[in-house]
Amino acid sequence: MLRWILGGREAQGSVEKNPVLFIGEEQPKNWFTELQVLKGHFDIVRFLVQIDDFRFASAGDDGLVLVWNVETGERLLELRGHSQQITAMTAYTHTSGENTHTSLITASSDRTLSLWDPETGNRVQTVSDLQSSVKCLLVLERLCVWVSGGNELCVWNRDFQLQCQSQHHDDTGISATVELPKNCIAAAMDKEIVIFRLTMSTGSQLSVAEVRRLSDHQDSIHALININDGLFASGSHVGELILWDAVDWTIMAYEHILWEESQTDTQAEIRLAAPKPSEMSIQQLTSDGELMVAAVGSGLYVYSVITKSVVAYRKTAHDSNVLHTMLLPDGGLMSCSEDGSVRIWEMQDLLLPAEPASAGFFGMWTFGRSNKQVGPPVKKVLELPSLRTLELTGDLIGHSGAVQMFVSFGEKGLVTCSTDHLLIAWKNRERESHLRSLALFRKLEENGGL
Fold first, then answer.
1. N or C: fewer beta carbons within 10 Å in the chain?
2. What is the DSSP letter of 422?
3. Rounded to the nearest 10 degrees, how much is the dihedral formed by the CA atoms of 47, 138, 165, 163?
4. Which residues make beta-bridge pairs with 47?
5. Which pLDDT band, with edges at 50, 70 and 90, does 438 fall under?
6. Using CA atoms, how far apart are residues 284 and 237, in angstroms rounded to an integer?
């Protein structure tokens, strides 16, 4: 497919040598056959937020927020105002009568929050001199408020007026938040998940109070997501994955993901080096309500929250840590990595007996907390008759730095951002060629022919 056309990175060494992960130039199941490079940032691009069916915003360490048209690749607006890197960004859609308007909220290391109008590029509201940098943003559309997480949990209305806030939190502060039923919020703070409840008092005054601390993780929580109305999930630095009840906050399932020890050399009893912590760290989680994908080190794990069992996994999906994943409508999934690649995977039935899975692989899901493992994994082959394999069907090579994340616009294409300061819009060449032909014919008609 497309080789390293940008930057100065050398060809993939380990991938080129591995026939399983190198599928060559011919990729019939990969329809991302055309790319468009979008330039405008001059530092790492970390965030992409979809505004509507045609527009998206990008932001990163240069403090800029750029608004783009995904179909044309045109840079529509350049939003300047932050003096340091962007630490969080989200879209805020609100309805007034029959009109619906989407704004952008950004947070920066300069300890400011800003509300932007992506139609005009104006900074509508700003809050400065915050006590700490904001690390995460969460919109609660039903309550017409939004939440910022830093050393405090702050609740704001649409006019950027502070409604209430929690007490000051020491150490690392709040790194991630998700909305829960009954006006509750789950916030990740180091090793704990803190449950806050919003209450409307007389006079329509909002208040926030801590109601529970979930201290079941043994290390820092790196991922926190909603699964559906009844479940949410969290993942930690040491490979702990916990499925929670969203109403009563009890553990529905617990798993400690550990690498299976190599058995290629039974006489090699002395380990030359201990595994790096990142090799089992859960960097990111994503879900469509039925399946959940965990990015664990350089591997991928697909878990069914319905059957409480692993569906598919690949221990080495990339050369480096996987940073972002997405489930596809056709049953496949997509991942991007620090190695600069974006890969498309298809879940296929195993033709041969599955690779033995130790108790470290999603196999020992149990209810309650008694299952926590602190020692080596139990060498027990699990009976997983429905286990499938992840087969590589597409390899998008274009970035020369770590790909931070991507956002999909369906048939219009996929947009990726990277540490190489670039955005790439990946598209279907046949569709784009057809659209260009239609545009040319329309132009000819307007000009009365050739």
1. C
2. -
3. 110
4. 59
5. confident
6. 10
Instruction: Report the C-alpha gap between 172 and 399 in whole angstroms.
Output: 32
DSSP string, 20-89: TT---S--TT----EEEEE---SS-EEEEEE-SSSEEEEEETT--EEEEETTT--EEEEE---SS-EEEE
Q: Decide: residue 19, CB within 10 A, 0-12 exposed, 13-18 middle, 19+ buried.
A: exposed
Which amino acid is residue 402, in one-letter code? A
Global pTM reads 0.83
Sheet strands (E) in 136-278: 136-140, 145-149, 153-157, 162-165, 176-180, 184-189, 192-201, 205-214, 221-228, 231-236, 240-245, 251-256
DSSP string, 299-349: EEEEEETTTTEEEEEES-SSSS-EEEEEE-TTS-EEEEETTSEEEEEEEEE
* Between 202 and 233, residue with greater pLDDT: 233
* Number of Cα atoms under 13 Å in the Cβ half of residue 144: 10
Which residues make beta-bridge pairs with 34?
427
Query: Is residue 309 very low, low, confident or very high in pLDDT (cuts 50, 70, 90)?
Result: confident
As a three-state string, the secondary structure of 35-47 is: EEEECCCCCCEEE
Nearest one of 152, 195, 185, 184 to 171, comparing CA atoms: 152
**235 alpha-carbon distance from chain centroid:** 13
Helix locations, 234-312, DSSP H: none
For residue range 105-118, list pLDDT tens digits in order.
999 999 999 999 99
The model's pLDDT over 171-188, given as tens digits with 9 standing for 90+, comes to: 678 999 999 999 999 999
Q: What does the pLDDT read at residue 324? A: 98
| Residue 389 tokens, joined | 């394999």
Distance, CA of 345 to CA of 393 (rounded, Å): 6
Task: Write down the residue that tokens 């990339």 correspond to.
Answer: 318
Give the single-character DSSP code of 366.
B
Q: How far apart are CA 29 and CA 50, in angstroms?
A: 26
